Amino acid sequence: MKAWLLAAVGLVAAAQAGRAQDAAGGEAVFKKLCLPCHAVGEGATNKVGPILNGLAGRRAGSISGFAYSQANRASAIVWDAATFQEYIRDPKAKIPDTRMPFAGLKDEQQGKDLWAYISQFTTDGTKKRTK
């Protein structure tokens, strides 16, 4: 009986860990909310918003050829999962005077999924290899 209980607990924990970030779910969120203004992947170019390739570890306001707001360039943000979550929930609260006209993504799981999707792309638009 103990073995079955431990196995069940292990399966639930594994399912939760697996749900921590879902790149496929993030792709759906990206296509719905981000794609009109941003591009990611091979061949991505700046649109109304900058390309999002190589976002993980990149300094905000640093994509060449994109006209960022002064507030964005001066923010000193370096993108990671936590910073992205805070920003995507309410961009204007994180960077006052940003030009990003997005009200925010309040669903925390969708934000995590979106980060999982975006952060898998390297600066050249290829996907990072997974082990």
Main features:
mainly alpha, Cytochrome Bc1 Complex, Chain D, domain 2, disordered N terminus
Describe this structure in words.
The structure is a single chain. This protein has helices at residues 2-19, 23-34, 70-73, 81-89, 91-94, 108-118. It is an all-alpha fold and 131 residues long. Helix 2 (23-34) crosses helix 6 (108-118) and helix 4 (81-89) crosses helix 6. The model is unreliable at 3-18 (pLDDT under 50).
Number of strands: 0
CATH C-level category: Mainly Alpha
* Secondary-structure element pattern, one letter each: HHHHHH
Our measurement of the CA-to-CA distance between the termini, rounded to an integer number of angstroms, reads 35 Å
**Overall mean confidence score, pLDDT:** 88
Q: Strand count, sense and closure of the main sheet?
A: none
What's the structural domain tally? 1
- SS class: mainly alpha
SSE inventory with pairings:
Layout: H1 2-19, H2 23-34, H3 70-73, H4 81-89, H5 91-94, H6 108-118
Helix pairs in contact: 2-6, 4-6
Give a nutshell description of this structure.
With 131 residues, the protein is mainly alpha-helical.
